Amino acid sequence: MSSFVPTSPDTLADQRLYTEVGFVDVACLDCLATVGVKKNSDQHTSVQWSTEALGNCQEFARQEQGPVRRDVHKPCPRMMASIDDAVRAGVVPIGEVEGY
Length: 100
Known about the structure:
Layout: H1 9-19, E1 24-27, E2 34-39, E3 45-48, H2 51-56, H3 58-65, H4 77-88
């Protein structure tokens, strides 16, 4: 259950801007996971994982089978390498999109 459901048109527009605008689909070079990626700068990368992508990530599946569950804030190194490749190839632009 959501703790906050936006209803204001301005809030909905902001939510769309931060979660949809400028994201590019990037497929992992090792598994079937595809995530949304946005780079606002060289240092800032936003990655949006869908439920399907999480289920397809073989690295996360291996980590979940271990004695200690994975740190949810630790990225998949294979996906990060795929994102880096997409950035170098120019598939993922770096910089502001529609003001954000």
